Amino acid sequence: MVRTYRRKTTPVDKEQLKKAVLAVRKDKMTVSAAAKQFDVRISTLNDWLKKNNDEIKNLDDVVVLHKGHIPVMDSETEKTLVEYLVHCNDMYFGLSAKETRGLAFDLAKKLNLKVPASWEAARMAGEDWLSSFLKRHPTLSIRKQEATSLARATSFN
């Protein structure tokens, strides 16, 4: 999975795309004429025409949304995980990246969440999931822990 995706083409204007789909479906305009009139690529218009093959009466009936990816955990579950990681860090027992990935997998299994097959095989969350998780929660610092002596730990507030 690409961690920082860069779009290669300019995004299409959704209103223009809706009007083009409506013109083809309702007004029986040709695809090439609608694409030229509404300044939309023919291939893009064809893709959305396949997705909008129901009867269209007005502009609100046209759907031009991308579904995106389905997250493994909802925001509440992630918030619980973040709180636990912060609590561990406060007790000078921070978790490494691998331990965090394993904890995320265990939490997902405990809550009977649907996890990807790659998680099942490795028995831990993926590296890309961890990268995205840390981007969503920039206050977290997940890194290899170093030993803290008793004297140093007691001198901390």
TrEMBL record:
Residues 65-143 form the HTH CENPB-type domain. One of its GO terms (cellular component) is nucleus. SUPFAM superfamilies: Homeodomain-like (SSF46689). The keyword DNA-binding applies. It is found in: Nucleus. Coiled coil: none annotated. One of its GO terms (molecular function) is DNA binding. It comes from the Eukaryota. This is Uncharacterized protein LOC112463502. It comes from Temnothorax curvispinosus.
